[in-house]
Amino acid sequence: ELLAHRERFVRHVKTLNGRREMNAQALEDQVAECSREEEKHLAKLKAIQRALGSERNNHTATLQRLSREAEAAHKTYTEFMQDSYDGLKHKAEMAKGEVLHVNSRFRNSWKPFAAGGQFNEEERDRFIERLAKVDAQAEGEAGKQGERLGELQESQLTRAATALEEFRKAFTVNLDDITHIEQMKMQQGKATADVRIVLARPFIEHLMVRRHPSRLLVPACASDRRCPCCAAQRDPHGRGPRHGRHAVRCRFNHRLLT
After folding, report:
1. Which of 42, 117, 142, 151 lies 20 to 30 angstroms, CA to CA, from 86?
2. Residue 34: its pLDDT value, please?
3. Predicted structure pTM score
């Protein structure tokens, strides 16, 4: 009976070790998946950061869209990693609990001779001590696994946060550049419009004189003594506003202002 129990004990420990190896391998596979997700996320942030400097994205609205895309991707990645590592830590604790539970049931099946079993007290205590070492080993591995998972999670999230901070800095620089360029374009467009008005003034005045010579003899603001253009062209002898080309210019200015 004692030899048979020793064989059962060896099979029990061997089965437990097989389960622990399977659980450890499953954890490693999921850790590898987290590492692959990290590589994808970092590559995506780098691609979006490169897109900030593209000539096709030289507009403020486009840069803002890329920024929202990067922030959303980082948020999704962070939530995924948090859920994944929480699940991994829970599985590590469950694996330890399974070992302790199976060992407890196996231990409770050992009965001494006095209780109708096949062991004396000394043999039973010796097997209990050997099984306790298996429990301690499972608890130690679970603790190390939890610490390792926590360190991996922290390092991966730190690298992702660093990549996001680099993207934000690049976004700020590009946004400032594009804003400056857009302001320069607006100023350039305004200056171009002013130049076109100045260049078109003589031609328009000429057309107005040719088409409506009688209506343009008196300026449109002749009755308005506050008109700056008429005040500047007023006859020094007090005979009222000048006529002719000044009348054309005055009407043209009023049309531009209104």
Report:
1. 42
2. 93
3. 0.62
Residue 241 DSSP SS3: strand
What is the rounded CA–CA span in Å between residue 144 and residue 137? 11
If one counts every other C-beta atom within 10 angstroms of the C-beta of residue 41, the result is 22
Query: What's the DSSP call for residue 59?
Result: S
Of 36, 146, 39, the C-alpha closest to 85 is 146
- What is the rounded distance in angstroms from the CA atom of residue 189 to the CA atom of residue 176? 20
**What's the rounded Cα separation, in Å, for the pair 68 and 70?**
5
Taking residues 82-107, report their average pLDDT: 88
Q: Residue 198 is encoded by which pair of tokens?
A: 């100045």
Cβ contacts of residue 141 below 8 Å, gap of 6+?
Answer: 20, 24, 96
Taking CA atoms, 184 is separated from 32, 54, 137, 177, 191, in Å, by: 50, 19, 71, 11, 10
Instruction: Supply angle C-alpha 196, 200, 205, rounded to 5.
Output: 155
- Pick the closest to residue 38 from 80, 87, 83 (CA basis): 80
DSSP string, 92-122: HHHHHHHHHHHHHHHHHT--BGGGTSSB-HH
Which residues, in sequence order, are bridge partners of residue 112? 119
Q: Taken in order 121, 124, 125, 126, is the CA torsion positive or negative?
A: positive
Strand partners, 234: 241
Taking only the tens place, the pLDDT of each residue in 221-239 is 444 444 555 554 444 544 4
Higher pLDDT, 83 or 228: 83
From the number of C-beta atoms within 10 Å of its C-beta (0-12, 13-18, 19+), residue 15 rates as exposed
Residue 27: both structure tokens together:
């954890």
